[in-house]
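Subject: 2-keto-4-methylthiobutyrate aminotransferase apoenzyme structure
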Amino acid sequence: MISYPISKLPDVGTSIFTVMSALANEHRAINLSQGFPDFNCPEPLVNLVTRYMQEGFNQYAPMAGMPQLRHKISLKTEKLYGYRPDEETEITVTSGATEALNAAITAVVKPGDEVVLLEPCYDSYAPVIRLCGGSPIYVPLVLPDFSVDWDQVKKRISSRTRMIIINTPHNPTGAVMGKQDMDRLANLLSGSDILVLSDEVYEHMVFDGKQHYSVLQHPQLRERSFVVSSFGKTYHTTGWKVGYTIAPPALTKELRRVHQFITFCTPTPFQLAIADFMDEAAHYLELPSFYQAKRDFFVEQLKQTRFEVVPSAGTYFQLAKYSDITVAYDLDFAKQLTIETGVAAIPVSAFYHNKTDNKYLRFCFAKSEETLKAAAEKLAKV
C-alpha cells in the first residue's frame, strides 16, 4: 500500500465558485454566482489575437511579459494615477491576477510570518499564506458598509507581521477605499518593513461619480506595495487569464523569481493583442458607466423581491440581504435558490475563515439585461 502524504490544506475543499457554478449547470439555473460576463469581449480584440496567431506569434513570451505590453501598461498607469512605473524593472505580466497574488505572497512570506487580511476576503489569499508557512490574521470589515476599522488593524499588527492585503474595489462587498483609508494605512505602517499587497482588479468599476484611488497614487505606500490588476476583468476576457503586477524594483525582482517557476510566461498572442487594444482608451474609461448601468438595472429589478439591497459602490457584484426572507444559513439558502428558484449566487460566509453568516448573498451583474431581468423575476417568487 502507498502511504500518501498528509494534505497541506486538509480543510480546503473545492472552491465555492466551482461548487455553485456546477450546481447551476446541473439544475439549469441562471448563474449569477461566478464572476464572469455572459457577453463577449470587444470584437476588434478577438481579431487582433487571431491576427497575431496567424502571423506566427505562438511561442514563449519573455518571462516578465512582452515589452510592447509592459510599455503600454506604464503609459496607462501614468495617465490614470500620475505615476509611471519602469517597464523593465517594475511591471510583470502574469497568467491572471490569481497567479500574480500567489507569486507576490510566495515571494516574501516565510514560515512564521503573519499576514493581515480584511474579511470577508477573496478565497485565494489565505491558502497561499498557509502554504508558505505563514499565518493569516483576520480583521473583520465593519457592517453595514464593510468599511475598515484601522484601529482594529493596528491591534492585530505584531513584530511578526510581514504583509497586509487590501482589495479595492472589494470582492465580495463592492466597498471602495478612498484616500483617507490609504493615509491611515500609510501612517499605520510608517517606520516598519511591513509590505502591502493591493488587489485592484476591479479598478475600472467604481460608480456614482467616484474615482478609484490606487496605492500607486500614494508615494509612502507605493514604495512598499505589490499592486495587482486584471485584463480579464477590464476586457471581459476572464478565460484568457492575463494580469499584471506593479511593484518597486526590489519587490519585482523577488516576484519574478517565483513567477518564472509558476507559469514562466503568459500566452504571446494575447499579450500583443491587448497591447494594441490598449490604445482604445475609451473602452476602460467608459467601463464605470457601462457597469453602473447594469448595477442600476439589476437593483431596480430587485425592488420587486424581498431582498434588501444597498447599491454596490464598485466591482460587478451586488450584495443582497435576505434576513426578511429566512433565517437559513447562507450556503443552504444559496443552494436552495439554485435548485428550487433557478438562480445561483455566492454565500458571503464563504469569504470568512470561520464561515460568518450575516445573511448576505453575492450576485454578479456582469450579465445582459435579459439575464438580469429573468433572474429578478425568479427571485421575486421567493
